[in-house]
Amino acid sequence: MMWRRILLEGSMIAFQTVMLIGLCATIGISRSDPRAETDSGRPLGLDLYRPEPADNPPTADKVRLGQRLFRERLLSRDRSIACVDCHQPKRAFTDGRPKAVGVYGRQGPRSVPTLVNLAWGDSFFWDGRMPTLEEQVVQPILAKTEMDLTLEEAVERLGAKRRYRKAFTEVFGREPNAEDLARALAAYVRSIMAGDSPYDRYLFGDRQALSEKELAGLSVFRGEGNCAFCHTGPTFSDGEFHNTGIAWRDGEWLDEGRALVTERAEDRGKFKTPTLREVARTAPYTHDGSLATLEDVVEFYNDGGRKNPYLDSTLRPLKLTDDEKDALAAFLRSLTGSVTEGR
Amino acid sequence: MTNQDDQQNQPAGEAPLQSWKEIADYLERDIRTAQRWEESGGLPVRRHGGSAGSVYAYPSEIEVWRVSRQPKSGGEAPSTSVGEQPRRILIPALAAAGVIAVVLLVIGFGPVLNPPSPIAQAAEDGLRTELVWPEARGASPQGSVSPDGKFVTFVDWGDEGNLAIRNLETGENRRLTDTANGVNASYDGMSFANESRISPDGERVVYSWYQQSPVGNSTELRLLPLGGAAEQPRTIWSPGDGSYASVQGWFPSGDRVAAVVSTSDNTSRIVTVSLDDGDVRQIRSIAWSARPQVRVSPDGRHIAYSRSASREQPAKDIFMVAVDGSSESAIVKHAARDEIVEWSPDGGHLLFNSDRSGQASLWAQRVDHGTAVGEAFLVMSKLGVGSGMGMTRDGSLFYPVRVSRRRLKIAKIDMETGKFIQQPSSPIERFVGGNSGGVFSPDGDELAYRSQRRGWNQNAIVIRSLKTGKERELPHQLRQVRGIINWRPDGKRLRVRGGDQNGEQGFFDVDAATGETQLIVASAKIAAPQWTPDGKRILGRSNQGEGLHSYSLADGSIEAIPGDLGDAYLFSLSPDGHQIATIHGRSEIRLRPVEGGDGRVLATTDEQHRFGRWTVWTPDGKALLVLKGVRWTGRPTGKALWTLWIVPVDGSAPVETELNHELANGGALPLDIHPDGKRVVYAAGGYFQQFWALRDLTFDELEKAAE
């Protein structure tokens, strides 16, 4: 009986490993492509300095453990879902659905955000309710609409597995517990990085890296489109919260957004600026997945967002021509590059 | 002051004023007054060939004299007897005191003209300062000093923006590049040098070379040997998207430099660039801050930089990031505004400017292996030194100081002929260089202006009686005063643009008697505001859509006003509140009814000229005052000649006034007209640089003394 379980688990790990390697090879997740990384292991365009909490320094073993936990379906109530099922590497760590779907087919209230470059973030979730990755990573395990497990149950399930007892002991010097589960997952998520896009190569001096159309789109992005006001820096996000009106329908808030955290009326309908790295692979868009394509997104902003009592003051009708809209969408697609993980 | 006939002691490199006329003009007084001041007040005037020869004088010495005297009321003749002291002692000492004092406020480092003298302060702090280039006219301050302290690089705006080097011992300047055309080329064809840094061995310089062209702008980091022979520069790297790259320092190995790349998405990226192969490493990005100053540690392991703690906070802290990206730590963390200056030569201390003592001063922090050790200590009080031009091997800190000649002036003009009724005068004697934005009170008895006297971004609001000359500073509660818009019609309160202690940016009511401050409306709600005559509504731009909007002060509601403003962002509301004037394409002035409609073209310019950005109505509503100048020809130093014109709204021919030449910042000039319809107040005058050295800094001793 024991041997059968060992063989079964072994073959599953082997299968997952093979699948993972194949996946990485086909969708651009890179570990060693010299073109994709600087000599520090950072994809081109990202800072060498990556903020890391003093009480959770990354080690190779810890990140590897986090990576295993990220793919561990034991962490969901019915053992059917792992983090990776919603944060799929082939979709730049999103799931392609308008709203997240958890255990027993339960639908969450918002779409799955990408996990790329979260190391440089300072608040997490669409409404920014979690200030650290260590606090954020366990929330999906707890959420009824996602994995629906208590941390005690999660730790108990992990503790029942010899391989996890061994791995936790090697990394943290003790058996599985909730804090170390969060630390390992956070360390892994912090290692997910996206960069080395044609845009980055252009920025760093390769003037042929972007097509004429993409260059025209960059001009709109930084100029009359004013996109760069919020989508700024290497992560293409100011990390702040803005009201674009996407949650305002027929005079009502479908989602109060940031106001759920701050309890301030003026924060109604505000959501964190999402990164645009790999944006071509993260459809549908916005916190509710209500914009299906990049063209829809461009059209939405071209209209100045959706008017509401707290519309962000930076939004106004752009009056872009069709060519400019095409170019802007082309530029957004040029932000597709390499995604690395595990470092 | 006795007359001088020797030229041996002349300030190095400084052009003298060559006649009584030039001296009087410099003093902004008539010739007789200047002569009287020489006779009785010790004005430092020299004579060629002995006492009977023609006169000449050096501006730096005049500035020394200015500061040394105690002004009597009305700015009359001096009372001190400085001329009785031995000149060889007096001049260097007072030169330092005077010129620092004259200029520092202008660049945001606190009070300047009033005692205590900075040189005295330096002496009190056990330091020695030296003015190494008294009047660097046309020189930019972004250069650097050679490790031996004998040379400084600078951009010579008297030579099209070419990079040049000055021998501080001989006073000779030598051009290093010869292809700049930053003054005479058209705007989209300019190229010129900017920041430069001399290598640790003193033999090379890396500089930023900026080029504008119709297809886009670009910056190159270029390398040039400093040997005597003319050599072609080598381009090391250029950002692909035309972002501005500013070289900031060398690594001790001499094969890499640090730079800051500023992209148009408001991101500053700290990078290092290899001189060998152009390899670029992005160390740290700052997504929202102004371009940071960056300094490489002498051991090459860290980069120190300063940035704001958040977007809303003007306070800045200093951080140190490992060049390999492995760590970052706060070195100076304080509620004050702290700006990095330089590393000590041994890397044991970091010098920085801070306003924590109430006035910008030079401080130092001991640093060990990337972390701060102990408390920061004061190096020199009441004196900030800007961004620094580097330290020499022997511990001299070189720094630029901008000397401002800006003054608030009042002229009286006949609004029919444009002729002066009364020549421009400068009634305000205090904090010269830091005063701007004057507005007359509704009864015409007072003038409110802002005065930079507290340090960075913290402007005082001053109210001056035009009858008695008495001034009082309003104790307002604003963190920043960005401009005084106008007085309320009752004359009891001022409308001020600025930011409060909570970081709220907007338009504020400031009580003209008590300084009590209240937010009127946040600038996010409405921009470019103009109050209706009844004071109940504000017309301006809004985020509710394009065009003009009307904001109700009673209930905060915003209504769109029909009609498009086109490309005119700013507009001027007539005194009766019925019409608005706008400027389009900088070449056409239009008038239209407030409620909308096409309106009419009031005046146009030819292709060689342009209008300023906005107009000012005369109090009777019969004419507009507008600036007219030559079109931009790529003169970053603002040399364009502007003239004030009167444009009658009845369509008759515009009248050119005699007010010209000295108008500062042409298109953006704040100008206000007195209720008498004749007097105008405006800011006039420009700037030049001085280069200073703070000698023999011994940090361990300073730290001990501070303890």
What can you tell me about this protein's structure?
The complex is a heterodimer of chains A (343) and B (707). Chain A is globular, with a radius of gyration of 21 Å. Chain A has helices at 2-27, 60-70, 83-86, 133-136, 139-142, 151-159, 162-172, 178-190, 198-203, 212-222, 259-262, 294-302, 322-333, and strands at 193-195, 241-243, 248-249, 252-253, 270-272, 338-340. Chain A has 343 residues and is mainly alpha-helical. In chain A, the strands form 3 sheets. In chain A, strands 1-6 form a two-stranded antiparallel ribbon. The longest helix of chain A has 26 residues, at 2-27. In chain A, helix 2 packs across helix 8 (178-190), helix 10 (212-222) packs across helix 13 and helix 12 (294-302) packs across helix 13 (322-333). In chain A, 36% of the residues lie in helices and 5% in strands. Chain B is mainly β and 707 residues long. Helix content of chain B is 9%, strand content 44%. Chain B has a 4-stranded antiparallel beta sheet, covered by helices on one side. In chain B, strands 7-8-9-10 form a 4-stranded antiparallel beta sheet, with no helix packed on it. In chain B, strands 11-12-13-14 form a 4-stranded antiparallel beta sheet, with no helix packed on it. In chain B, a hairpin with a 4-residue loop joins strand 32 (493-500) and strand 33. In chain B, helix 1 (20-27) packs across helix 2. The model of chain B is unreliable at 1-14, 67-118 and 634-640 (pLDDT under 50). The A-B interface holds A 38, 40, 42, 45-51, 201-207, 209, 218, 222, 228-229, 231-234, 238-239, 311-317 and B 237-241, 243, 263-267, 269, 278, 280-285, 287-288, 321-322, 324-328, 524, 543, 545-546.
